[in-house]
């Protein structure tokens, strides 16, 4: 599930629907923008998601594929996403990916 532009509306709707009995992978940044998201921005998105989804069921993803982005911005964005995941895990607030 990738819907970064929805500002977690999909997460809230799915939470009410089935209490996340399955795993979920919401988008943590908008890949349609050429702007590289900061580590802090992605950490904030993940922490918000962890208020709605158990850490064992949350997988952070870029939003809906990367075909619209170039190699340099994709690489920088994914590096920031990995660093954000490490920071969130180290705070013992949740797990983003395995």
From TrEMBL:
Its EC number is 2.1.1.14. GO terms for molecular function: 5-methyltetrahydropteroyltriglutamate-homocysteine S-methyltransferase activity; zinc ion binding. The gene is metE. This is 5-methyltetrahydropteroyltriglutamate--homocysteine methyltransferase. Residues 6-86 form the Cobalamin-independent methionine synthase MetE C-terminal/archaeal domain. InterPro entries: Met_Synth_C/arc (IPR002629), UROD/MetE-like_sf (IPR038071). Keywords: Metal-binding, Methyltransferase, Transferase, Zinc. It comes from the Bacteria. One of its GO terms (biological process) is methylation. PANTHER family: 5-METHYLTETRAHYDROPTEROYLTRIGLUTAMATE--HOMOCYSTEINE METHYLTRANSFERASE (PTHR30519). Pfam families: Meth_synt_2 (PF01717). The keyword Secreted does not apply. Its cofactor is Zn(2+). It comes from Blautia wexlerae.
């Amino acid at each position: 599930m990738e819907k970064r532009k929805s500002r977690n509306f999909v997460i809230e709707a799915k939470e009410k629907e089935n209490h996340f009995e399955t795993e979920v992978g919401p988008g943590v940044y908008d890949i349609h923008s050429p702007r590289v998201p900061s580590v802090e921005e992605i950490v904030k998105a993940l922490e918000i998601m962890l208020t709605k989804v158990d850490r064992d069921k949350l997988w952070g993803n870029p939003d809906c594929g990367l075909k619209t982005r170039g190699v340099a911005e994709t690489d920088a964005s994914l590096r920031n996403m990995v660093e954000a995941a490490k920071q969130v895990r180290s705070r013992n607030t949740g797990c983003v990916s395995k």
